[in-house]
Amino acid sequence: MNAIQGLRSALEQQIETVSIDLNLLRADLRKVSEKVNTAETTIGSLQGGMTSLKKQMTAVRTEVDELGRRAEDEEAGSRRSSIWVLGFPDKSEGTAMERFLEGWIRDETPRPLRVFCH
Prior knowledge:
Elements: H1 2-80, H2 97-108
């Protein structure tokens, strides 16, 4: 009977040790589970933010493309509106191109003169 009692006592001690270890494992699993839940929440919110950023980036690219097209159109238009006058030495107009051309046209052309630009 003593032998059975001794075995029972030893078994109860081992069960107690296993129970303590099991409770520690459960606590560790709870902590891991909380961290996983936090990570999933963070990842979910980041994914939502990425979707928003992708939409914003697409809108910005579209706007940049449109502004680039407008800039090209403006540059092409400014080239079409340019007047090239050949035969004058470099820098003969000084700092007032309009005044120089007005004087030259006035001095070199017969009256009446109509100038059409488009």
